[in-house]
Amino acid sequence: AQSAGNKVYGTRITEGKFELGYRGGLDTDSRSRLDMKHKHKLSVGYGITDFWWTELIGELERGGKDTDTFLYEATEWENRFELITETDYLPGFGLYTALVLAEKDGKAHKIEARALAEKRIGAMRHRFNLNFERETGGGRDHGLELGYAWQTKWYVLPELAEDISLQPGFEAYGDFGPINDFLSGAEQKHQLGPVALAEFGLG
To answer: What is the Cα–Cα distance from 183 to 175, expressed in whole angstroms?
Structure first.
């Protein structure tokens, strides 16, 4: 299922690139146990080769208004592979895999895979992910699920300073449910909203 702290993955990989990352979100809900729920992901990644990126992520979560306690929810190991390099005429294609090990008792682990596509057209760059997710171990409640993620960003703002850039855009996420029995339209989850993406060079 999609959640706060999601990400749309691109296909391009730079060998030797080191990256520290943070993704987070805050939910609002009429139910107090879910209202003001926080989720935070801290990550460290590295480009091992010009086609293989690996990343380790720790996930923290705080429940709704009923609690002030942050709990360590999961450890994620992600790998991304650039299969076809983007050209002036053709999009780039890649593969993403992830193993999510839940730390909370009774919560299922996850295996994830995504087909990736990316293309710059003029001042815009588009990314599309076709997502497959399967829960494993105790606590699992569904089989293989299908979802998607989309991102469009604009290169319309000049660099704020050397090695600092900001691109506005939008992202969309959706879940169709189990691949052999899609949820009804009312039960499916689809999200669309604006984003501001920043890149900082560390030298």
So the answer is: 9
DSSP code for 12: -
Which residues make Cβ contacts (< 8 Å) with residue 29, sequence separation at least 6? 35, 37, 64
Radius of gyration from C-alpha coordinates of the chain: 18
pTM of the model: 0.82
Through-space distance between the first and last CA atoms of the chain, rounded to whole angstroms: 37
- Look at residue 3 in the predicted model and tell me its pLDDT: 46
Residue 200 pLDDT grade (very low, low, confident, very high; cuts 50, 70, 90): low
Are 27 and 34 in contact by the 8 Å Cβ rule? The answer is yes
- Beta partners for 180? none
Asked if 121 and 154 touch (Cβ cutoff 8 Å), the reply is: no
Please give the Cα distance from 141 to 131 (Å, whole number): 18
Q: Contact 120/87 with Cβ under 8 angstroms? A: no
**Residues found in the chain:** 203
**CB contact at 8 A, 92 and 82:** yes
